[in-house]
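fyi for ur records
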Amino acid sequence: MRIIQVRDYKELSKAAFDVIAETLKQNENASINTTTGASYDGTFELLVEAINAGELNIANSIFTNLDEYVAERDKPFTVYTYMHKKFYDLIKVHPKYIGLMDGSVEDVEAELNRYRKVLDKYPRDLQIVGLGTNAHLAANEPGTPFNSRLFLADSDQSTIDSTMGYHNLTAEEAPTQMLTMGLADIMEAKHILVASSGERKAAAVKAALEGPIHEDCPASILRTHPNVTFIMDDAAASLLDKKY
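which gave:
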């Protein structure tokens, strides 16, 4: 595992951008599966700037996402809305293929089966994940088996609270379920990128990097993968015993 500690969120965003940019420069046909949320807002801004300036070519690449809320697609908090407002609607050149799950469907199993075929068709060169405050990856909450595959997940209260805070939602508005790639799906990627920022993530960072490798801490599974880049700022690293 390659661990990069940076000073603050701005440096974290740039470090994450550099990993994505390097992936695309090494392979213009790269398949990249990404997450959404506060940890990567700055990274997406840098990607938009580089693509629109002609510094980064994504025309032959594949972009997919690892989860989606169970909700109407046009809700302000959905992955679909995030990816369009912060990325796809802003770039002048689009990937060759864009893969998004649809959490508004009535037949959830059919949607999961459809997306399994997408994942099978486009093996991930780079898997981008965020780290939840309870050390979840995607919607794989604590206790999820390490061999989990694409499934419908119930969100823990801490995850619901984070969603409410980030999107300024009431408890009634907040989604409680997600369609999500499983941990086994995530671990199939050639390279996994994790970015974590702020004191609120410090306990999760410590558990992921220094605690037992156990299903109670989903992110701990990353330590068994041969190629992980884990980026954290000083605040997120504040509880670690070891200095990186």
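The chain has seven helices and ten strands. thats all i got for now
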